[in-house]
């Protein structure tokens, strides 16, 4: 187990370097000049521009720039924004809490609602509630998040006044609830469908018959035996999805006026603030890598037949 | 990490759940086992069986018909509306309400804030979504299959290299990554967006293909072909590919709807297709400022977009059911 974790952690290093390198290359090698952008419509002062590029190291070869960035990153230095002179780490840590709260709530909704709906549908496969849940999830998957957000905001928030239409205070969990449902809608629909498939496959398994034969209650047989054995594909999906939720928050945050990572990265993209974009994306990549490792370790917990050497 | 157990007895009548390994979400296990058997007469392949099943499935027929209509809409938008999607008449039609009884006329679904017919713009917006959805899927299908096939068949160093490369691209968040690519283009056409989506989108197919090829390459018929002296490419293309491709087709069909969503999200964020192009995402983005006054300009393009995505998803679901022998 310990050796497996160490090996996986070592394997993460080239993947992390590779992913950040690609993002870095895309951000810096493609056209668009953040220094020139500082002047906007006005004619820039060539000498001043050259001096700024020099001090920011933008004239170095791309590989040297990447090396400097990476070594800085390892020392906890995310760089500085060009236009605002703010530390990137400060920009990220300002924006991160709101996004983390939103993502955490969305993740919770995904797990609870998704697994719950999937369980109900799977146990009643073929009946009305199953067909209803399948239809609703298909609908949720096919309505894009930005449409759902707009519709919920307009009707629940503005027309009927059931909830506050925008988030005024991102520390208020009640206000974050609607955006979190919107953000989670796609994921819990997928989770529900995955859980359902898995339950349908497993509910006639031998171990379920054995569990019943030895006198376990339905509740215990389903809760302990069936659910645990059906969770592996769901956990796989959830692991990949956590990163997607954080990245997908960019749309939800925009609609519901949450000042998080999404807005920060959007502004940084449009003003070509490479260090901010690469910093935030690196953070999401790191989350993704750690979560995939955790998911793989969780397999062994869910299914003791899986051993890691 | 232990490899997922790939070969699965599809002929067992008692379904013993097999979870000896992490099951990749999208991989349809066992779908590669063709139950042809040595029966005399006309052997029924997986494909004949699947086609036989599909034709009888209402969800397949309905979604295929809708997709057919969408394809015609994309190719010949003029058949569906006489109005021009760009001609705007502000003084007469500014945000005019829909006339729901005037079917298929320019005023049917109302006018937007530039006095353009919402219905005409919806019809003309189909092309961008369809082109991007289909071409991204095609590119990703070919490239991802190739990578997966090479990694799975040759194994060894090549497998390690290609798998790490897949891991690297998979680590990049899809939406953010495509945004980073697209933001650096000043004018973004269908092809720019296609490139960005395909650049980061091929990884799932490569993984599914790799797993599928690994499970197929140990089959007897591959060994037989090799002992008869078939060359590597012949084995790959004639023996492995046809037997390994079913799960890849399933993943690709389902992914198509996802690419259409991605295009809409990007256009909605203002980083997708640039202005003169007509796209549903872009129109929905411009409509959201008016949603409190005139929701029809947001509602109808959204409905068409959702129906399109829904049809491709239903098609993918039906194809998966037909190609997965476990569900037979």
Automatic annotation (TrEMBL), chain A:
It comes from the Bacteria. InterPro entries: BPD_transp_1_N, MetI-like, MetI-like_sf. PROSITE patterns: ABC_TM1. The chain crosses the membrane at residues 12-30, 102-121, 133-156, 176-194, 277-302. Residues 96-299 form the ABC transmembrane type-1 domain. It is found in: Cell membrane. It is a multi-pass membrane protein. Keywords: Cell membrane, Membrane, Transmembrane, Transmembrane helix, Transport. Belongs to the binding-protein-dependent transport system permease family. This is ABC transporter permease. It comes from Streptomyces millisiae.
Automatic annotation (TrEMBL), chain B:
This is ABC transporter permease. The keyword Metal-binding does not apply. It is a multi-pass membrane protein. Gene3D superfamilies: MetI-like. Residues 126-316 form the ABC transmembrane type-1 domain. The lineage of its organism: Bacteria, Bacillati, Actinomycetota, Actinomycetes, Kitasatosporales. Keywords: Cell membrane, Membrane, Transmembrane, Transmembrane helix, Transport. CDD domains: TM_PBP2 (cd06261). The chain crosses the membrane at residues 60-80, 130-153, 165-185, 240-260, 297-319. It is found in: Cell membrane. InterPro entries: BP-dependent_transpt_permease, MetI-like, MetI-like_sf, OppC_N. It comes from Streptomyces millisiae. Pfam families: BPD_transp_1 (PF00528), OppC_N (PF12911).
